[in-house]
Amino acid sequence: MADVAARKRTRGGGGAARRAERTSVQVETAKYIERRIPNFEILDDAALAMIEDHAEQVLEEIGVSFVNNPAALDRWRAAGASVDGDRVRLPRGLARELIKTAPAQFTQHARNPERSVEIGGKNLVLAPVYGPPFVRDLDGGRRYATIEDFRKFVKLGQMSKWLHHSGGTVCEPTDVPVNKRHLDMLLAHMTLSDKPFMGSVTEPSRAQDSVDMCKILFGEEFATNNTVMTSLININSPLTFDDVMMGALEVYSANMQACIVSPFIVGGAMAPVSVAGTLVQVLAEVLAGVAYTQLVRPGAPVIMGAFVTSIDMNSGAPTFGTPEASQITYGAGQLARRLNLPFRSAGSFCGSKLPDAQAAYETANSLNMGLLSGVNFMLHACGWLEGGLVSSFEKFVMDADQLGTLHKMAEGVTVDEDTLAMDAIREVGPGGHYLGCAHTQANFKTAFWRSDLLDYKPYETWSEEGARDTVALASARVQKLIDTYQQPPLDPAIHAALNAYVAEKKASMPDAFA
């Protein structure tokens, strides 16, 4: 009897432990994706060679403009380019020779080493939405973003399993002066998350603040010798490199911090309407921009970017999730691999005003295209709404949940003795079912990806629980994640030093809202 009682207590304790495990707060981040599937290649070698030849022709005959940047013009002259005013023309082959020193893959270190990421190769790193001045949620609707909204997004990113990166300007906190908000945003990323993050690019001095704060967070020696930031440098397409973005690029490249050199393509407005013509311009701009990072400092990490959308010829509004954008992104991925550079593109792009069916269709198209095109760094992977004007809390968690499907798809299909399941087929035989067979019992926990958000309950249960649609479910999940958020530990001395740096920098200048 004693043995029976002991066994009952053991079983009861195990069940209690499992229930406790299911209900306890667990903050888990999946490792960055390592693709085991082939990239989709839409262009053959002859087409790629023609695009490359025409991009060199653009650089040699038409050139690119480096505006209000005498130092950049001097660098190009010294490298052998022809400079006329702010127009720089590159001899055929010069840019390709310069970019040979750019690394094909690099590590971006997080303050939690377990969350560092490898950018390049067959890897895919997912980062959230970047840049919107507005936010939207189910309760408050559409409104200007605040710093509290920003901090809330950083917390959601920290709690999101499938998101590898904290991102940068997840929304633009308009209640903080323009010249000071980068300090608050960096402080939030550094203290509320332990995932990798992005630096400020809105002014060269703000890029330097980003570097200085990283030296506090990581230690000066480590931050000087390692890449701890990735930052977005947009090209003013067509063929223009402005002094603000280039000033930030110069700071980051000189400090061995990574830059995403990214043409900003709206087909029909900032690039030709044709896919091939757009790829020619994208490649020309990337060649010039990446080459410039290596003029600043050979070996500086850099990512080839391509933000791609088309335009509605009736309204002039950008469109997302379209076939043409996918074709350009697939082609750009092939060009990036031929240059031996990491590739940034795609995201949860949509033009919808709400997290509705339009948003879901367009986002699904954009995310899957990103996976198949060989993207290594996917900015805007969750939260994007209204053509990038809005960061949506509900869409953030909807998209973040769906990023799990990218992880699953990237695994490919394993074919071995276990997955071939001959024992199961023998055990069940004709007319049976597999629910209780040994193979199912051994594998059911990991056999299928499972959403943490979507509803698969019977109609009656769904109705009794309030007949909630996906937006309502997402709103509840946002609240749950915020309620269970756990701030990652940080050395109090480092936290205090960061606060002191921010306070001192803010006190050194008057507020400016323009």
TrEMBL record:
What does the entry give for GO biological process? methanogenesis; methylation
Entry-linked InterPro entries? MttB-like_sf, MTTB_MeTrfase
Tell me any Pfam family this protein matches: MTTB
Coiled-coil residues are none
- GO MF assignments: methyltransferase activity
Spell out the residue ranges making up region: Disordered.
Answer: 1-22
The protein's Enzyme Commission number: 2.1.1.-
Q: What is this protein called?
A: Methyltransferase
Give the originating organism: Antarctobacter heliothermus
